[in-house]
């Protein structure tokens, strides 16, 4: 279940994500300026259009940036 605190953490995580972060994580290929513009202008469409491997990479990045990763590891 997503809480209000989780939503705020995710909002901070996306607001503080750079193009470099996304490229390092394998979410946006180098030189893909249209995806970077979409990330900034229309995040929901950016997420919907990501292919599965890049969507997983984005989810992993957001989990790390939002501080969810330790809780996920503890649950496993």
- Biggest sheet architecture: none
Helical residues, percent: over 70%
Shape, please? globular
Q: For the terminal residues, how far apart are their CA atoms?
A: 17 Å
Query: What is the ordering of alpha helices and beta strands?
Result: HHHHHH
Oligomer description: single chain
Question: How would you sum up this structure, described in words?
Answer:
The protein is mostly helical and 76 residues long. It is built from six helices and no strands. It has helices spanning 4-15, 19-24, 33-41, 43-49, 52-66, 69-75. The mean pLDDT is 91.
What's the gist of this structure?
By secondary structure, the protein is mainly α. The protein has helices at 4-15, 19-24, 33-41, 43-49, 52-66, 69-75.
Provide keyphrases for this structure.
6 helices, single chain, globular, 76 residues, mainly alpha
Q: Which SSEs are present, and which pair or pack?
A:
Layout: H1 4-15, H2 19-24, H3 33-41, H4 43-49, H5 52-66, H6 69-75
